[in-house]
Fold this sequence. Notes:
CATH topology of the largest domain: Serine Threonine Protein Phosphatase 5, Tetratricopeptide repeat
Order of helices and strands: HHHHHHHHEEEHEHEHEEH
CATH architecture of the largest domain: Alpha Horseshoe
Strand order of the largest sheet: 5-4-3-6-7
Distance between the termini: 68 Å
Amino acid sequence: MKKKLLLILIFTLFFLFNSLVIAQVDNTLEEVKKLSTQKEYLKAIKLLDKEISLNDRSIKLLGAKIEILLTMNRYEDALKTSIKSYNINSRKSPWRCMEIVSICLKLKNNEEAFKWLDKAVKLGLLSYSALYEKEYEPLRKDKRFDSIIKRIKTVIGIGKPAKDFSTILISGGKISLSSLKGKVVLIDFWATWCPPCIKGIPHIKKLYKEYKNRNFEIVGISLDKKKDLVEQYISKEQIKWKMIYSGKAWADDIARLYNVNLIPSYWIIDRKGILRDFGIHLRDEHKLKQAIEKLL
């Protein structure tokens, strides 16, 4: 009994300590925001450094410091801080690598940029279309660039049969991707907590209304953790297309099958079940509509 009470006490103390740390970090970030608004960047950096010395594993604090250092054009310091943030983060994100790539390009260090771009690809970078933005122009002049694009497209599987899956709809009933052959399919990985996802929903509703009678189908895959929030949103927005929910968030089986690490994530599959398009460029409503019309 005493052992059980001791464990409860330890857990309670840990919870209280963790809550205090989170509150302190939030207060610091609020003060840093005010200082940044007043362009008191040096004071903001000093405050962040003091807090980081006490809590050097806070990704939020490091992220705020990176943002200010970039504003001050202190790219060398921003690079060191960004690499530190990457190293201490247990979830190795390709997007953190791409942040480092961007800083390397500001320093005109293409070799280091390619090193981190390669790391991003190995970690699952899929949005190759983003690499055609002006920011990455220095990389496109290098012969290694085409090889990287080819590797990404191979992982995505563009031009190949889309990866099949079979699961249960949130409304009940089974669904498999292969059962939708004969239709153009838009797969949308999304979540209610994701602002860009919610921003894109009205346009997707228009697409569904316009094309649903032309052998077009949408399959939404929610990466939410709470089912009631998804059901409430579907009801409120009167979403009619097929919706999948597992409650596993980023660990969702289909999201892992498709290596999804950024949402919204749109995938377009033709009538024969071949993956034809994917990428950040499809967040543009006109490009998304053109890609679908092309296959219809």
